[in-house]
Amino acid sequence: MASGVGIMRKIIAGDRHRRTRLHDEKGNIVDAGEWKHLPSVLHRVAARKLFGRLYDEPWWTFTIKERVAALLRPDMTVVEFGAGQSTLWLAPHVGRLLSIEHDPAWWERTRGALARRGLTNVDLQLRGERDYADLAGVPDGSVDFCVIDGLLRGVCTRAVLPKMRPGGWIYLDNSDKDMDFADDGRNLRAAEAMLLRHAAPADVRYVTGFTIGSLNAQQGMLVRWTGLNQPVPPRPPVA
């Protein structure tokens, strides 16, 4: 019995950021509605670790994936910061997808996967930090949905807000991270703070759940962009 308790403790043990695997980095425990997805999470973790299999789906929570799936339409224009499995999942559901990635190996892997699946509606761009969040080529008010994942999430949030169509949606992945750092204008704390300043409370939805491909809790933030009249603060320079 004691050994069984020890094994369970090891399985759910946290780290310096989380109290346990069942808590996100803000200290929130997994939402009650997420527990029904635990068997599917365990299946995907086993498939990845034992067979190297990755499903064409984002490493969000199942609840966020379901909510986003209900929002997507084939006429949508989408911007994604951080390419990967989410790119392969989003592309068949939308009209046009601009996906920006900074890692050459991951960009090449995603590019090959898109080609094998015949997905031609994705503009997959490899960028460095200096121009990672540059959306100068995207018309204002034209983006229906944005995924903010990857580098400089505060900078990416600032860049995409003028591009959003009123009534569109923004998903900030890992909104529980960077809790050890102040709002520096660039990190996740800055991204969350900016979205909260520019969205009505009723249009903000948080979900804490199990990451689809990894047995850890994380929080995601889904925001309906209504274009409140507060100006977007100027973008700080990227060193």
TrEMBL record:
Top-level lineage group: Bacteria
Record Pfam families: Methyltransf_24
InterPro entries: SAM-dependent_MTases_sf
Protein name (record): Class I SAM-dependent methyltransferase
